[in-house]
Amino acid sequence: xxxxxxxxxxxxxxxxxxxxxxxxxxxxxxxxxxxxxxxxxxxxxxxxxxxxxxxxxxxxxxxxxxxxxxxxxxxxxxxxxxxxxxxxxxxxxxxxxxxxxxxxxxxxxxxxxxxxxxxxxxxxxxxxxxxxxxxxxxxxxx
Length: 142
Known about the structure:
Elements: H1 12-24, E1 58-62, E2 68-72, H2 75-80, E3 87-89, H3 91-130, E4 136-137, E5 140-141
C-alpha cells in the first residue's frame, strides 16, 4: 500500500479508524470480545456494560413469539457462583434511547434536507443559464 500516493476517497486517519471499527466488530476474537450484535432487535445489544462488575450485558428473548428482550449480567453468576448482578427489560430503555437519538439527529436531518434542496436548485439554475435561448434544458423549458 502506498500512503499518500494519490488523493483517496478517505483521509488516511479515516481509513485507519474504519479498519479499527471493522476489527472491533469481529466476534469472538481476543480475550475480551467487543463484537457486533449477532441476532435480535434490541437497540443496545452489545453496547451496555454492567454497573456492578463492568462486564458486557447479555441479551435474552422470551415471550410467546420470542421477541420480548431483556438485558442482564451473568458475569458474577458464571464466574463466582453468586446471584446475577442486574437484569432489566429492554422496552423502556430502548424507547428512551431511541427518542433521545432522534431528538439529537432531527436538527441535522432538517439541515441536510435544506442543503440538498439548495444544491438541487443551484444545479438546475446552472443548466438553465448554460442553455441557449428557447432550448429545452434538463430542468424543463425556459
